[in-house]
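Example 429.
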Amino acid sequence: MTPTPMKEGSAAVQARRVLVLNSGSSSVKYQLLDMNDRSRLAIGLVERIGEETSRLLHTPLTGGDAETRERTGRIADHAAALKAAAEELAADGLGLDSPELAAIGHRVVHGGLRFTRPTVITDEVLTEIERLVPVAPLHNPANITGIRTAQALRPDLPQVAVFDTAFHTTMPEYAARYAIDVETADAHRIRRYGFHGTSHAYVSRKAAELLGRTPEEVNVIVLHLGNGASASAVAAGRCVETSMGLTPLEGLVMGTRSGDIDPAVTFHLKRVAGMSTDEIDVLLNKKSGLLGLCGDNDMREIRRRIDEGDERAALAFDIYVHRLKKYIGAYSAVLGRVDAVVFTAGVGENSAPVREAAIAGLEELGLVVDAGLNAVRSGEPRLISPNYARVAVAVVPTDEELEIADQTFALVGRAESAGQEVPVGQVDN
Ligand code: AMP
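Predicted structure in complex with adenosine monophosphate:
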């Protein structure tokens, strides 16, 4: 479905709200933002879609107290989820039929090599996102469902795809290619794409701001440590290396993913342990990482167990930190000069012990953490290295939804301010 292009002077030109949708296989997260001041008007989550125990949590943020409303009971599919979210928004006077809504921005996990920028979604763009399903079977189908559902809700509105892979498309060929047979790789589009790009882009820019410099002036290593985790090396604002690859399985130890392993482990599991490909997929993506190592994937619980003397939890923590250190060292070598190492996402923003352990012993690389600064809890970007340190160590809270809203609004707004129709049908390169 192709949205009707908007013309300059239409009522929608004044529209300054953006709805951000992050559609997973059984969940939809949404945020409505006012782009006048980039504030949140409401946030929400629909989870366990399709199950009897579906739940919607909706928090309007326009009043004084942010009180979360909850709906429980089966929500059959993504269309029903978005309808329920729209009803909650309407109850707060923020209905999605409002002329103030300028666009809907969608997180799309895989944009392959084609989508290097946010892109207004047309039939042709959607077909291309569908063509990428074989390389992103777990993610792109849910994103496509989210897009189709939103299009049905507001067919007149520009819908923009913001790709997790886009920021990494600047990686040089020697970093993006696996050393496997070129014809086989190309025939099946096997290469390193990287993910979490929206977060790496946002955090690396914010880190430069924290240092009082422009992104072009600094080289930074970003450590996005959430339940999924990835590292990136960003030189002068451009990604030159990242730890996730063809899929989000490669790289760091994560909550439930193994990260790097010898690929021969999979042959071994097949030939010797008799496991099927699907079973190995589940093992490495869902039952490995911290969970596989110690039975917990939440860093808070792991730290609690370590404090009680639990050795399995301690070993899981050490393996997690060891991998992080290897990547910090490797990316220091890739960048040559590093201005900052930046921690972000759930673990990176909140776990002082992880930050301390990951940086410990790296004085030769110019990296030191100040224990007092590291212990401070704050939602603001901050330095945790002492003044004398050669390389800054920082904590920068990520905000993928704000980045998606900014990119969506910039793309829609740019066309309008130039007096053009929103460039539907074109890939914005
Ligand atoms: P994310 O995927 O960015 O939402 O991160 C989720 C993960 O962050 C959780 O699984 C926890 O391991 C971790 N996390 C969240 N809060 C804390 C905290 N206060 N201390 C340590 N880890 C935390």
